[in-house]
Automatic annotation (TrEMBL):
InterPro entries: Leu-rich_rpt (IPR001611), LRR_dom_sf (IPR032675), LRR_extensin-like_regulator (IPR051582). This is Leucine-rich repeat-containing N-terminal plant-type domain-containing protein. Pfam families: LRR_1 (PF00560). One of its GO terms (cellular component) is extracellular region. Residues 1-24 form the signal peptide. It is found in: Secreted. Keywords: Repeat, Secreted, Signal.
Length: 447
């Protein structure tokens, strides 16, 4: 059937509208190459540019989120920037921070706002850098210090008493300026003495007390540090005999207390006469005779060998301890006479407390009775006639009967000092320092 002209025109208009609509939809959903910054080259290849003239339109480019991390150029120098990276890496390992310390470890001001971090300039270096880290008492918890302490190459001091740091002691041999290490009262992994520490030949302070170290102490501990002032290894699980070269160390304050050491006190201790100020052998399993060489320690203010298995008599050389203030030999297997010359140290020297309780002494010199009345001498639980609070006759008799054959310690009558004023001047030279650090080793017995 033939269509009329008006009908054909109407059909044409409908088809034209549909074609135009389809064409419009295609244009809207596919941007042109020019709109994307893509153009055809003369050889038919496709070129990609940025901006006008064939480049990407910046308005269509994705924008990266702005970084909150500071850039290297924002730091005072490159050393501080590298230290920043090390600190931030360690910060992510801290899983407990009850005092909110790590919240201050942000930004570029490491030397001012980072709590526990202190800056300085190493020798022959003009730039400031992180020279000291003091985290004492922060109670931070991290499973490892690896990559942190050893990652700060300009570090001179690291103090971390009373935290919950675990893992092994980092290898610090590469820290050329390092001289103070305090890892006390932590949760370091049970291990032998960290021998890498022996490479820190500039060290003046080594403190690893209140951890779980075990095994024997290396002889290098007493020969590797020519300028060491303090060595605290108390309250661990060290065992075996003390190194024979103990007296070769120039250490001033030595605490070996509360371990499992056995065997005798090394006679080499006499070689430390010019340097040793305080020494604690307290609460171990040391045995053998009291060495007369202890009497050579003319500058010592504290000597504590209580609660061991030491035996024999007190050598007469101990009357030369004119600087000693605290002398404790309690709870051992000592016997014989407490000589008057030892008790006279309370008058001719500086003796303030002489503790001999828990032994088997049988006689006191005349001056000793005065010290008991003054509260400066404790001889409880001995075998001394007419003294208060003594062992029973039966207990004393059994001790001497059972140990008579083993009482082989020589009675040392060697007195190495001159008459009574020997050593007083040397003691007075140390008085100011002794007052400033009064009984530092006894303080080390607390976390």
């Amino acid at each position: 059937m033939a269509r009329s002209v008006p009908g054909r025109l109407a059909l044409f208009c409908v088809l034209a509208s549909c074609i135009a609509l389809a064409a419009g939809t295609t244009v809207a959903t596919r941007p042109s190459r020019r709109g994307l910054g893509v153009s055809d080259s003369h050889d038919g290849a496709v070129a990609v540019g940025v901006g006008g003239g064939g480049g990407y339109d910046d308005s269509l480019m994705p924008r990266p989120a702005p970084s909150s991390e500071p850039r290297a150029c924002q730091f005072e120098n490159e050393r501080l920037y590298r230290a920043y990276l090390v600190i931030q890496k360690f910060r992510k390992t801290v899983i407990c921070d009850p005092k909110g310390v790590t919240a201050t470890w942000a930004g570029t001001d490491l030397c001012g706002s980072y709590k526990g971090f202190f800056c300085g300039r190493p020798i022959n270096v003009s730039d400031r850098t992180v020279a000291s880290v003091d985290l004492n008492g922060f109670n931070l918890r991290s499973d490892s210090l690896q990559g942190f302490v050893d990652g700060l190459p300009d570090l001179a001091l690291f103090h971390a008493n009373s935290n919950n740091f675990g893992g092994a002691v980092p290898n610090l041999r590469g820290l050329q300026y390092f001289y103070e290490l305090d890892l006390s009262n932590n949760k370091l992994a049970p291990a032998p003495f960290p021998t890498d520490v022996l490479g820190l030949t500039n060290c003046t302070f080594i403190d690893i007390r209140f951890n779980s170290f075990f095994g024997e102490l290396p002889a290098g501990l007493f020969s590797s540090f020519p300028e060491v002032e303090a060595i605290f290894v108390n309250n661990n699980h060290f065992s075996g005999q003390l190194p024979d070269n103990l007296g070769d160390s120039p250490v001033n304050y030595l605490s070996l207390a509360n371990n499992d050491f056995t065997g005798p006190i090394p006679s080499s201790i006499g070689r430390a006469a010019d340097t040793l100020l305080e020494v604690l052998f307290l609460n171990n399993s040391l045995s053998g005779c009291l060495p007369y060489e202890i009497g050579l320690l003319a500058r010592a203010t504290v000597i504590d060998a209580g609660t061991n298995h030491l035996t024999g008599t007190i050598p007469l050389s101990y009357a030369c301890l004119r600087s000693v203030e605290q002398l404790n030999l309690a709870d051992n297997l000592l016997y014989g006479v407490v000589h008057d010359s030892l008790c006279r140290l309370a008058y001719d020297g500086r003796l303030a407390n002489l503790t001999l309780s828990g032994n088997y002494f049988t006689w006191l010199g005349p001056c000793c009775w005065d010290l008991i009345r003054e509260g400066k001498l404790n001889v409880d639980r001995n075998c001394i006639l007419w003294a208060p609070n003594q062992r029973s006759f039966q207990e004393c008799a059994e001790f001497f009967h059972d140990n008579w054959a083993r009482m082989t310690c020589p009675v040392s009558k060697y007195v190495p000092c001159h008459p009574k004023w020997y050593g007083v001047d040397a003691a007075r030279e140390e008085a100011a320092a002794a007052e400033e650090y009064k009984y530092r080793t006894y303080s080390a017995l607390h976390p």
